Amino acid sequence: MNIWGKVLHLFGWNVEITAPRRNKCVICVAPHTSNYDFLLGLAAYRSLGRKANFLMKKFWFFFPLSIILKHFGGIPVRRNKHNGSLTEAIITDFKHTDYMNLAVTPEGTRSATKQWRTGFLYIAYGAGVPIQLGIIDYKNKSIIIKDEYHPTGNIDIDMDYIKNYYIETGELACYPEKFII
């Protein structure tokens, strides 16, 4: 067990990542209601010797924090403008690299919102990679990635599937009142 696994174990957390190990995939993580979600997800993935990229508000990428975030796979996102160019850039990155696991939170915020972001679906479909479905379960102290979804390219169908997958997970969130579908 590496240091990441030891820290999780010390705080009573379990890692239940049984989805196939992929060189390329998008990891959808919900519910997302706390900043701790990031730390727990990072520690869980690293405990298995895996690395993942993640999208985060550009606001957080200031010196010296930017060095740490980029080291751990952070990709800064400007939230105040249309991000079609970011989506295309990430699809290109997937196509030109041997390994990329991209963790995303479809809510795009820790606040309650019914409007989930669709960029991760466009990325997965455009890159031809599966979406692994992750849950951070505060109730049982488990980080879970066991299921996988292959997007169809129909955003409505794909989003309905993803939301239905997570529909019963609200009570597992750090702040259940902030998770709505």
Q: Could you say which structural class the secondary elements and strand pairing correspond to?
A: alpha/beta
General shape:
globular
Q: What about the largest sheet?
A: 7 strands, mixed
Radius of gyration, whole Å: 15 Å
Number of domains: 1
Please list the strands of the largest sheet in the order they lie side by side. Answer: 1-7-6-2-5-3-4
Helix and strand string, N-terminal first? HEEHEHEHEHEEH
Which percent bin holds the helix content?
25-40%
* Strand coverage percent: 15-25%
Query: How many E-type strands?
Result: 7
Number of helices: 6
Mean pLDDT: 92
First-to-last CA distance: 36 Å
Low-pLDDT parts are none
Model description:
The protein is α/β, with parallel strands linked by helices and 181 residues long. The protein has one domain. Helix content is 33%, strand content 22%. The chain has six helices and seven strands. The protein has helices spanning 3-10, 36-47, 65-71, 84-95, 119-127, 155-166; strands spanning 14-17, 24-29, 53-57, 74-77, 100-104, 131-137, 142-149. It has a seven-stranded mixed beta sheet, with helices on both faces. β3 (53-57), α3 (65-71) and β4 form a beta-alpha-beta unit. The longest helix is centred in the first third of the chain and has 12 residues, at 36-47. The chain is globular and about 40 Å long. The model has no long low-confidence stretch (mean pLDDT 92).
